[in-house]
Amino acid sequence: MSTPAMLDVFKTTGALLEGHFRLTSGRHSNTYFQCAKVLQYPEHLTAVCSEIARHFAGKNVETVISPAIGGIVVGTEVGRQLGVKTIFAERKDGVMTIRRGFSLEPDERVLVIEDVITTGGSVAEVIELIKHSGASLVGVGSVVDRSNGRVRLADDHFSVLSMEVINYTPEECPLCKDGVTIDAPGSRANKQS
Ligand code: ZN
To answer: Which of 4, 12, 45, 75 is the most buried (most CB within 10 A)?
Structure first.
């Protein structure tokens, strides 16, 4: 799927809204993004994940691992399409850990999948778990890279969409200066649905 076609899917599902929004941080932005809104539809989940699976096909991935919670849906579908074992890591007392009887073996070829990468913190913690286990990192795949390519977590780092996060303090917000009505993301999303 082309980037414009992919952007269109994100817009029509309400995952990507354009306007004037107050983010949970209190900053203002001209876009609101909620990846889960596109992934709730099976045809979109399949299409988005096939972009990632195609990139890593032929790279001998043995296991897919995702940081909970956001990465699990994408990781599971990418793993299903690649036909490989899929597990997830989760925080216990603030520390990323592999639980539930999951394990990584030395030299196991592991692909890390996340839904949205902004600073890459959770993925970096999962990569540390892979290194500690002696397993081998094949690469990192995500649906959206909100760092617009600035965050590089692996030699082979693939994202379906790259986009810049543009936000402002309320004082410096150009949309406020232009008198554009502001929405809280939830209320805007509800109006559209
Ligand atoms: Zn504003």
So the answer is: 75
